[in-house]
Design brief:
Growth Hormone, Chain: A; 8 helices; elongated; mainly alpha
Length: about 210
């Protein structure tokens, strides 16, 4: 028997959530595949570039544990939007200044922390804002949107880098991080209020 794709009851929520997560997906992959190239471009030889890239990966993994601490996770939405806005602003500034060897290390630290915090905090926020009775449907939408955004981000990033160069790409990355962070946080606040309202209303009726 043929199965049909089912959307959540609130179609507008699912559409806006899809779009906001799509932008998030683009932000995560816009520059990630090009990092080894960017490291070489600032003057590091292949051997040193490989070491730096490996250290970046390790630093990103270790940063995940930072956001597991209660001081960050208990206010996940506030931490998320603060992290995204701050990281975005710093990255835009770095793009305008121009990346050299030292600033490349700073840049990698910033996006390493931002990426780690992004995934940890986003997951916490999802389970806090999505309707429990349609959780599976919404998680499916989120995964689909993120994967599409991730694929589009790689293509978009490579195109921007080829035409405009690394500094423009870095600045655009910062702008997208700010836009995606603010958009997703706004969606979180709205859906969280709707979920809490429905829960309290249901509790009153019973």
């Amino acid at each position: 028997m043929k199965k049909t794709f089912k959307l959540p009851t609130n179609k507008s929520h699912s559409i806006f959530l899809y779009l906001s997560v799509l932008i998030l997906g683009i932000s995560t992959s816009l520059i990630e595949p090009l990092i080894p190239v960017l490291i070489k471009n600032v003057g590091y030889n292949a051997a040193v570039a490989s070491i730096i890239y490996t250290m970046y990966g390790i630093f990103k993994v270790l940063s995940i544990f930072l956001f597991k601490f209660n001081i960050f996770s208990r206010n996940a939405s506030k931490t998320f939007v603060t992290l995204e806005l701050t990281s975005g602003i710093i990255i835009i500034i770095l793009g305008f200044i121009g990346i050299d060897r030292i600033l490349m290390v700073v840049f990698l630290m910033i996006i390493g922390i931002e990426t780690a915090g992004f995934f940890v905090l986003k997951e916490i926020m999802e389970y806090d804002m999505l309707p429990k009775n349609e959780l599976v449907l919404y998680l499916g939408i989120i995964q689909s949107a993120f994967l599409l955004g991730d694929a589009l981000g790689s293509i978009l990033g490579a195109s921007i880098y080829t035409v405009y160069g690394e500094n423009v790409l870095i600045s655009i990355l910062g702008m997208i991080i700010i836009i995606s962070g603010a958009t997703y946080h706004r969606m979180y606040v709205y859906m969280k209020k709707q979920r809490d309202f429905c829960s309290s209303d249901h509790g009153t009726q019973t």
